[in-house]
Amino acid sequence: MADPGRRIPLRVSNGKAYAWDIDDIAVLRGQHHICGVLTGTLPHLSQQNVFLGIPLVLMPEEVVVLVEKQLAVLVDDLTAHRTPSIETLKGWNEERAESARLQIAAAEEDAQDRPAKYVLSEDALRKRKEREERRAAAAKAKALAEGEDIVDPSILASTSAPQNQAVMTERPPNSAANNVTPPYTITLPASSSSLQWYDTEGCTYTSIEDARAAGVWTYPADLHERAKCGVFRDLWEKGYFMGGGIKFGGDFLVYPGDPLRYHSHFVATVIDAPLATIKPMEIVAHGRLGTATKKAHLLCGWEDEKQEVSYFSIEWAGFG
Predict the structure, then answer these.
(1) Burial, 13: exposed, middle or buried (Cβ in 10 Å; 0-12, 13-18, 19+)?
(2) Which domains does the chain have, with CATH numbers?
(3) Contact 228, 274 (CB under 8 A)
(4) Is 228 a catalytic residue?
(5) Most confident by average pLDDT, 166-175, 188-197, 236-245
(6) Which of 19, 77, 86, 194 is 20 to 30 Å apart from 261, CA to CA?
(7) Is 255 a catalytic residue?
(8) How many other CB atoms sit within 10 Å of the CB of residue 248?
(9) Annotated catalytic residue: which of 81, 127, 247, 263?
(10) Residue 221 pLDDT > 60
(11) In percent, how much of the chain has pLDDT > 90?
């Protein structure tokens, strides 16, 4: 299990942050109420658009709050992938070849103790012939008892089997085909302890400012992005879980607990300033949509100078 006290590495690639370790994902969700979105495909799963696996991609607001709270670090994923030397690659190939030789030798030794497939011993052939003769005698006796025409046992035996049944050809025990080694599977290591493909030293950043200076991370870059980060952090500190709210006409969905157990109570829309102008039709639309989806709509006004948030809840009400 991952150490809950350590900072979780978030691998940054093309401006998005990913968590690749399943233990880190469990810590993010269970201890830090950060959900993210699973984006990886699962092998042998038909519904790839319903059930997904690692990596976990995080919203930029989730990344900012985790780094600011010293719960995670940012890793430049492109720089962390190192090109090994020629000598290292040669050693890795030799290690793979040696592993393959050992597995082949073990498989061949095991195959010598197994009987060849589909080869019957003399005793098995004799028992099979006796069973066929008994079936033929029983069929002949039944036909005589019922007064039916007697059918040649050889014809009866050939017609009694289903026509689509495969016929197995028996080979003599000493045929050359019996000496063929049966197929087997060997496993080659995908990596080696001596081969350093990935090294995070020199490309790990503990603050947003350091990552921005290195060109690894740029969010937040303007007032609206700072407002979204501020609103997200304030709701997160109050103990809420957050998810993307674009499906419901807002910036975030606000859950009272884990989204696997609770429905969202609010749809949050971020306003860049507390005194920003809002069109009346927007208020009506937010109120009607929130009521139709059994949610209240939150208008979250961010004050950049004081780093504070003011909330207004919109709910549709009947009159008269």
Answers:
(1) middle
(2) 220-319 (3.40.1350.10)
(3) no
(4) no
(5) 236-245
(6) 19
(7) yes
(8) 21
(9) 263
(10) yes
(11) 42
